[in-house]
Amino acid sequence: MRIALVGYGKMGRMIESVARSQGCEIGAIIDPVASEGAVTSRSVNAESLDGCDVVIDFTHPTVVCDHIVLYAQLGIPAVIGTTGWYDQLEQVRQAIEGTDCAIIYSGNYSLGVALFMQVVRQASQLFAKSGLYDPFLTEIHHNQKADSPSGTATMLAQRVLDAFPSKTHIEAETQHQKREESALHLASVRGGWVPGTHTVYFDSPQDTIELTHRARSREGFAVGAVRSAFWIADGRKGFFTLDDMLEDVYLSVERSE
């Protein structure tokens, strides 16, 4: 499989290493600013993607929506790891409607995080039923992360929000006043070299329950992204999330057993 890497920062270089270790060929490395000699093009277009079987895109929220539309128009399967663009999700869906697209997107391609999402969903349902707990979330990332809150944190918050009828919206801004009762607060911290730490809290006057996922390195994200590239390029058509892949690869196998 010939992979085009769009975005050649730390994540892109880790994906390159994992992909090569799994026998993949890197057909293109596209980045507008990276200085490494491995970069084959500065812009994403039909010419720079020519001959590639699948794209893995870890770029920037300001450009990724245009990239997705182009991948769909060219009929090139794509793995989207860029976050910070989900507020434009429906516009992107409309823009690629009628194309022969094969897109999978996620704020985090770690299998451990995907399983953590399942745990948080079930836990949220239990704590919501009790009527005793107030939920909130924190996330910590390295000082070079371009967006805030993280895509993973937003996905986790949505799972909590779905379970608690008393919560109507996610509040990701610093609170300079009393927090609204209906707000689910999500706080972000940027500093150091932290690959990613996400914690969901369920707090009552009597106790606190914390569910935490700590990434040790970016390798888990890269492994998941490459695995997703194999999956999306295997003749699939449509607009998918990582949950769709997990349902197809893992949960369907579990049920058959």
- Roughly how many Å apart are the termini? 30 Å
N-to-C SSE series?
A: EHEEHEHEHEHEEEEHEH
Rg estimate, integer Å: 19 Å
Tell me, briefly, the overall form: elongated
Query: How many structurally independent domains?
Result: 2
Can you walk me through this structure?
With 257 residues, the protein is of the alpha/beta class. The protein has a 6-stranded parallel beta sheet, sandwiched between helices. The mean pLDDT is 92. It has 2 domains: 2-109 and 218-256, Rossmann fold (3-Layer(aba) Sandwich), CATH 3.40.50; 111-214, Dihydrodipicolinate Reductase, domain 2. The chain is built from 7 helices and 11 strands. It has helices at residues 10-21, 61-74, 89-96, 111-130, 151-163, 219-232, 242-256; strands spanning 2-6, 25-30, 54-57, 78-80, 102-105, 134-141, 169-171, 183-190, 197-203, 208-214, 238-241. Helices cover 37% and strands 23% of the residues.
What's the SSE blueprint?
Layout: E1 2-6, H1 10-21, E2 25-30, E3 54-57, H2 61-74, E4 78-80, H3 89-96, E5 102-105, H4 111-130, E6 134-141, H5 151-163, E7 169-171, E8 183-190, E9 197-203, E10 208-214, H6 219-232, E11 238-241, H7 242-256
